[in-house]
Amino acid sequence: MFQLTNEEVDNWKSQIVMSNSIKMGLRRNPYAFTELGVAMLSSILNTKIPVRNLS
């Protein structure tokens, strides 16, 4: 997971109809996942084995 740069945020906002940061609720640059990170997270969330609490 990484935080988008100002340039990446500007590019991203230009692709959205509602580009007003206040209406979007953005005060800081959002975080994003790489394509590999999404695949890894998806494989964890789709598992049928329960996760036990280790604390």
From TrEMBL:
Every KilA-N DNA-binding domain range: 1-44
Any Pfam family the entry gives: ORF6N
Name this protein carries in UniProt: KilA-N DNA-binding domain-containing protein
Organism: Parabacteroides distasonis
Organism lineage string: Bacteria, Pseudomonadati, Bacteroidota, Bacteroidia, Bacteroidales
